Amino acid sequence: MQPLTVKSKSVYSVSIPSDTYKVFQINGICCLPIGQVIVADYHNKKVKLLDQHYNVSSHCDVSGHAWDICQITSSMVTVTGAGVQFLSVSNENLVS
């Protein structure tokens, strides 16, 4: 077994105008089959959908802090926090 080596690193902003906190704590990341990425933004109590260029294309408020996120089907994810919430991705939008 060979160790993993980081070959490059990039920084992307997940800030949107409705964010209350500008210091982000991304607790969970999930990659979808079509190249989108969903992140759990803990302090802002949001789940954010990123496009293939890592720009926020959609977001959804969640009840409580977003602890983690997990894909359960090709178009549905669950978010843990104050409870478990199910979100779907439809036409490049997050829907609760």
* Helix proportion: under 10%
The rounded Rg comes to 14 Å
- Terminal Cα span: 42 Å
CATH fold naming: Thrombin, subunit H
Name the structural class.
mainly beta
* CATH class group: Mainly Beta
The ordered string of helix (H) and strand (E) elements is: EEEEEEEE
Major sheet characteristics: 4 strands, antiparallel
Strand order of the biggest β-sheet: 1-2-3-4
**What is the CATH architecture annotation?**
Beta Barrel
Overall average residue pLDDT: 92
Q: What are the low-pLDDT stretches, counting only 5+ consecutive residues below 50?
A: none
Number of domains: 1
Shape: globular
Strand-residue proportion: 35-45%
Helix count from the secondary structure assignment = 0
Number of beta-strand segments = 8
Write the layout of secondary structure elements.
Blueprint: E1 26-31, E2 37-41, E3 46-50, E4 56-61, E5 68-73, E6 76-80, E7 84-90, E8 93-95
Antiparallel strand pairs: 1-2, 2-3, 3-4, 5-6, 6-7, 7-8
What does this structure look like?
The structure is a single chain. This protein is 0% helix and 45% strand. It is mostly beta strands. It has a single domain (26-95), classed as Thrombin, subunit H (Beta Barrel). The strands form 2 sheets. The chain has a 4-stranded antiparallel β-sheet with strand order 1-2-3-4, with no helix packed on it. A hairpin with a 3-residue loop joins strand 6 and strand 7 (84-90).
Q: What can be said about this structure in brief?
A:
With 96 residues, the chain is mainly β. The chain is 0% helix and 45% strand. It has a single domain (26-95), classed as Thrombin, subunit H (Beta Barrel).
